[in-house]
Amino acid sequence: MGHKNDWQPTAPLTTLRLRAALLARVRGFFAQRDFLEVETPILAHAGAADAQLAQFMIEDPIHGQMYLQTSPEYAMKRLLIAGSGSIFQVAKAFRQGEVGSRHNPEFTIIEWYALGYDDKRLREEVCALIAELLPHLKNTPRTLSFSAAFKDTIGVDPLEDPIDALRKNAYTLVPSAKHLTLDTRDEILDLLMSQAVAPRFPDHHLTVVTDYPASQAALARVRADGLADRFEVYCGALELANGFYEAANSRQYADRFEEEARRRRERGLCAIPADERLLAALTDRPLPDCAGVAVGFDRLIMLAVGAAHINETLAFAIDRA
Question: Which of 128, 137, 196, 225 lies at a CB distance of 3.0 to 4.6 Å from 173, suitable for a disulfide?
Answer without folding.
Answer: 196
